[in-house]
Amino acid sequence: FKTAVKQESIDQGTKEKDGSMGWITEEKLPKEMWNYIASLEKGKVSEPFMYDDNWLLIELVGKKKSEKKDFESVKDSIRIQLVQKEYMKKLDAEFERLKKEFNVAN
């Protein structure tokens, strides 16, 4: 699997991590892809399959139950994510304003 990733992958983000996508929850993937991955056995590599005009190969290294967390244990993390998101919006807006001010072409 790692050899195939190094030789063939066009996804630089996962290519640099030997193909690892980390733990992924059902909400993060399209339903068809999630269903396909969920049908794989732990430790097995899928047959190549076409998705969204790309060939994919998946190695399922493990499965684990998702954990439900109470609000108190995640509220600081949520707050940080929201602040970062708002900061990025403001940064992007300021960047666009400066591009216009200095007549920068895209």
Description:
The protein has 106 residues and is mainly alpha-helical. It has helices spanning 2-8, 12-15, 31-38, 71-101; strands spanning 49-51, 54-56. Strands 1-2 form a two-stranded antiparallel sheet. The chain starts with a helix and ends in a 5-residue tail after the last helix.
List keywords for this structure.
single chain; 106 residues; mainly alpha; two-stranded antiparallel sheet; 4 helices; 2 strands; 6% strand
Q: Return the string of H and E elements.
A: HHHEEH
Largest sheet: 2 strands, antiparallel
Number of strands: 2
Rg, Å, rounded = 20 Å
Question: Roughly how much helix do the residues carry, as a percent range?
Answer: 40-55%
Low-confidence parts, pLDDT < 50 over ≥5 residues?
none
Distance between the termini: 39 Å
Short recap of the structure:
The chain is mainly alpha-helical and 106 residues long. The protein has 4 helices and 2 strands. The protein is flat, with a radius of gyration of 20 Å.
Topology, pairings included?
Layout: H1 2-8, H2 12-15, H3 31-38, E1 49-51, E2 54-56, H4 71-101
